[in-house]
Structures are given as C-alpha cells and as structure tokens.
Design goal:
The protein is about 10% helix and about 50% strand. The chain has about 450 residues and is mainly beta. A hairpin with a 2-residue loop joins strand 6 and strand 7. It is elongated, with a radius of gyration of 37 Å.
C-alpha cells in the first residue's frame, strides 16, 4: 500500500511539472519595438516639416501619432522609409510639448517628445495705414498673403474679443468694417485661417468715436491768450470761429469749391479753393495775391508758397512740411531761417482723426497774427492727412547774440475724456508764438 501511494505521488509531481512548462511555452512574448536608432528633432513649427531618423519604419501596420498633455492623440499622415519618417505638423495643432507615439497591431510605444511652436504668420509686411478708426468705418490691413476665408479677431483689455468674418481681399490687402458699436480702445489684430491664428506684428488698431473740435485755448502766458470757439453748420462744416474777448468772428461761406470769410482783424476777404477735399489755393493775408498749397502722394501737406512774391522783404509764407514714414509731422520750415522739428516715441498718444493737428495748433497765435489765411485753413481742417501721433518734444530756434541756437523742449501731453492738453513748459516763456494748448472735443452724433 505504501508503494502505491508513493507511485501516485511521483505521477502527480511529473504531471504538475509538465503543466508548468506548458504554461510558459503558451504565453505571448513581450511586444518588441519595431524601430531603432530613433532621433527626433527638439522643436518644429506648426505647419512645418518634421523628419524623424531611424530604421524599421517600413515595418507593416505601423502608425504615428502626436499626443498632447491632455493625452489627446492626433493621427499623423506620415511617409515611412528605410531612413525614417517624414510628416507635416497639422495646422490644427497648437504650440506645446507633444509625445511622439508609434503603434503597431494594437501595441504602442512612446518614441520621445517634440516641442511645437507657433507657425510663422503667412502675412508678409502687415501694416495699418490708418491707426485710428471710428466705429462703423472701414479698415484696410496692408500686406500680402491674405486668402479667401480668412477672418479677423480684435482683442483689447476689458472687452470681449470681436470676430469679423466678412472681409474683402484685394491688391491693397484685407478690408473689413468695424462694428458700429465697437468700444473705444487699442486692439491687437489677429488673423484666423481655419483652426490657426496669428497676431499680426506691429499692428495696433485704435478705435475712437468720431469727434470734432468744440473749443481751443491757446495760452502764450503774458504774451497772449485766445479762446477759440468752433461752430458747425448742419453739414458738419466749420461756419464760425469766434474769439469773444477780441470780438473776432471768422464766418465761413461755402459755395461749390470755394470757401470765403472776411478777416475780423484786417477786414480782408480770404478765399480758399478746394479740390478733392483739400485746399489748393488761398488768399495771402499779407499780400494782394495767393498762396499755393501742395501735397505729397500720400496726401500730406508738403508746402504753402506764395510764388508771386519775391520775398525781398518777407519770406515767411514759404512754408514746407516734412512727414516721416510713420505719418507724423517731423519738420516745419517757415521762411529761410526757421526750422521746427518734432519728435515722437512709443508713449506718444494718438491724435483725434479729422481734426486740427495739435503739432500745428500750438503755433496758432503766431499764425493768426502773421499768416491768418494759414491759421484759418488749419481750423477748417481741409489740408489732407494729419499726424497720427502727438509729439513728445519740439526743437525750435532761439535768437542769441551770436546767432541762432536750437533748443529742445519736452511737451507734457494728456488726453482725459474729450480734453487734450499740451503743456509746452519753458518753450512758452522763452519763445514768442508758441503756446500751451487745450482742445475740447465733442462727440459727433450720428
């Protein structure tokens, strides 16, 4: 009996041994990564080409994915070869770090990671010719590379993003219309194409309600102070400029392409000829003849010259205006010996569109007394384009015993609600003809 039990125990042991071996032989082996020698570039642009080096990428049934930080995978349309794999990063992906995932027959491996950066903007040389625009008006973005289907998004602090899908593409660029209820403020401009977006470099759009000048206070200290009140007719044209203290009233009459007024100072009749919304000819307030007005191709005033006068005794009407590439008045020359220079910086605030240029308005007292027709023309605001910014300093000549000396004066410029103030500081005390300036604007109701 004892032998029988021993025999049965041996049989069970043998059976158990074979059963364990069979279990090892029947199990699935660990999946093996089909590629080797993999080299992944550290970064790539969205929309750019990526080449991953390595061998084994021609194995059957393999696929490639990019996985973001949320474990969301994007299938990649890749070209596999003996040398590696090549693909274009989908434009639908956003910048960030992605895992590169390889799959085969239900198995997957993380080959490494790659950092995607924003794609270069497809727009070449984006620009904004008109930096200040009124709500409801058209905006044209310069540059090339715009395509049908592009959209625009305007972004500003403390306001919701504004998406504009109705745009027009032309040789001039991309044109759209601002919503009539667009809040005032400074907006960055982004281009949307499909699921991709780009902030357009160096493009900041200032939205500003349509305004006009209500009053100008030009204060030259002990020299003179003038408060000019501006009135308008039912067509929005200047019809009166009044200085109550002096009992002056320039009453402007409009007939076809001619504007006339009688000088309250000299009683001379001042006549202005208008062409395409710009003064091209005016009565010289000092001589019994005319001044000719010229403009650049960009519609900026370039000169006011009395070509009929030989200037033997007077050359002050020979005025030239130089604007820089940013569209700001850079230099004003009066006569043969007076050069006035204006400088701007990143902190320069925007002018109020379609109103008198503050850079010229600080000279109003001098102009009214010596070049009355020019002063009135500036107030009529029919002299083409005006500066886009207000200068932060002005350089002017000072007469010294040994000749002319140029000195630079800082300007303190503030815009609070509808009131612009320019404090010329020491320039007022030292120079005749320049004044501190306060302009009160009023909103133009539709």
């Amino acid at each position: 009996m004892k032998k029988i039990w021993l025999l049965m125990l041996m049989v069970c042991t043998v059976i158990g041994t074979f059963t364990a071996c069979s279990s090892d032989d029947d199990g699935d082996p660990t999946p093996q990564l089909p590629v080797s020698g993999v080299s992944i570039p550290a970064t790539a642009e969205v929309g750019g080409e990526v080449i991953i080096r390595g061998t084994g990428f021609t194995a059957s049934g393999i696929s490639l994915y990019l996985e973001n930080s949320s474990k969301e995978k994007k299938a990649i349309d890749a070209a596999f070869s003996n040398a590696g794999v090549t693909f274009t990063v989908p434009m639908s992906l956003v910048a960030g770090v992605y895992n590169v995932i390889l799959t085969q027959s239900g198995n997957e491996w993380t080959l490494g990671s790659i950092t995607l950066t924003d794609a270069d903007s497809p727009i070449i040389s984006p620009s904004l010719p008109e930096m200040v625009v009124n709500p409801g008006k058209e905006v044209t973005l310069g540059g090339s590379g715009y395509e049908s289907g592009d959209k625009i998004v305007l972004k500003a602090e403390s306001t919701s993003n504004i998406e504009i899908s109705e745009v027009t593409i032309s040789t001039d660029g991309l044109t759209f219309t601002l919503p009539a209820d667009c809040p005032e403020g400074d907006y960055t401009v982004s281009l949307i194409r499909g699921t991709s977006s780009w902030v357009l470099d160096n493009v900041v759009l200032t939205v500003q309600k349509a305004k006009r000048v209500k009053e100008l206070l030009v204060d030259a200290g002990k020299n003179m102070q003038l408060l000019l009140q501006i009135n308008y007719d039912d067509k929005g044209r200047v019809n009166h400029v009044i200085v109550d203290d002096m009992e002056w009233d320039w009453a402007f009459q409009y007939e076809a392409s001619v504007i006339t007024t009688v000088s309250p100072i000299s009683e001379a009749v001042l006549t202005y000829t208008i062409d395409d919304g710009k003064i091209i000819k005016s009565t010289d307030a000092m001589f019994d003849n005319y001044n000719n007005w010229a403009y650049t191709e960009r519609d900026y005033l370039s000169s006011v010259v009395n070509e009929e006068n030989d200037y033997e005794d007077y050359d002050g009407m020979n005025m030239t205006f130089t604007y820089n590439t940013d569209g700001n008045l850079e230099k004003l020359t009066m006569g043969s010996d007076i050069d006035i220079q204006y400088t701007y910086n990143e902190g320069s605030i925007a002018t109020v569109t379609n109103t008198i240029d503050p850079a010229l308005a600080i000279h109003l007292i001098n102009l009214i007394l010596t070049k009355e027709d020019v002063a009135c023309a500036f107030l009529l605001n029919q002299i083409g384009m005006t500066s886009k910014k207000i200068p932060n300093s002005i350089t002017m000549p000072i007469q010294k015993e040994n000749g002319i000396e140029y000195r630079t004066y800082d300007l303190v410029v503030k815009m609070v609600d509808n009131v612009l103030s320019i404090n010329c500081n020491e320039a007022v005390a030292e120079l005749a003809g320049i004044a501190n300036l306060t302009i009160i604007y009023e909103d133009i109701e539709d």
